[in-house]
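Try it yourself: sequence plus ribose-5-phosphate, in.
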Amino acid sequence: MLIKGPASVELSEKVAEITGEYTVQVKTKVFPDGEIYVKLDGDVKGEECNLIQTTYPNRHLLELYMIQDALKENGAESIDIVVPYYSYARQDQLFEKGEALSARAFAKRLEIEANKFYSIDLHSEKIVDFFRIDAENLSAMPILARHSETKDPDFLISPDEGGIERIKKAAREIDLEWDYLVKKRLDAETVKIKPKNIDVEGKSVVILDDIISTGGTMTEAAKQLKKEGAEEVHAGCTHGLFAENALDRLEKVCDSVFCTDTIEQERSEVSVAPLIAENL
Ligand code: R5P
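Structure, out:
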């Protein structure tokens, strides 16, 4: 049985079309004081349940806890949770005394009423180790790479060194050259970002990242590639958070901006449904 988390209804339906699972809706509402109400719209007693619910914005994380609790209370046989975008993953280590390790804090809560956890392009691989239940990190990079082909790129590029493994995986999928950007400090005020090995003059490139949040990383990367002479720069990511005016900023410099439906929105040009279905 597939439980359609309110944050991932369309994605859940696409998955169910592939897996043939029976789906159950979740009714939800927000009270005037901001508190949330959640109700399963079906009988889950004795069922093996797959629940898909992304956790952005914050409200959806609370819904996830509540749905897990309702599934347990209503006699679900097992609960596998698919969290397409696992929020708070960027605080995956402690920098200062007294900080909360948020990626671990939420893992501890989620695993209480779950048998298995799946996510996609977790910001860091080590997050799976925060779970004491079976946890799996799936990669949307092959899907994004195939979609990137529609932009006819000469290269795939990671905006930073942290994305090297991701970009390698994407490039392998479509047999294309890849590179990453390196930041070079010229003086106290100026940094220059350049591709390490390739010349982008007159070329078309797709920059791929796991997350676009404020768009700062991607905008800077795209600006620099254009300065280096790139003809076209396209920006793609798995998780399109597009906080505040990120899209406006990106559109000023990029030829196109796209993401998957781990967070469902207008820029979700490509679906992770086949990836989830295959793994469930
Ligand atoms: C950083 O390590 C991540 O991979 C992304 O590059 C980053 O989270 C993007 O954030 P923003 O869009 O705010 O620059």
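One thing you can check immediately is this: The chain has two domains: 2-139, 141-261.
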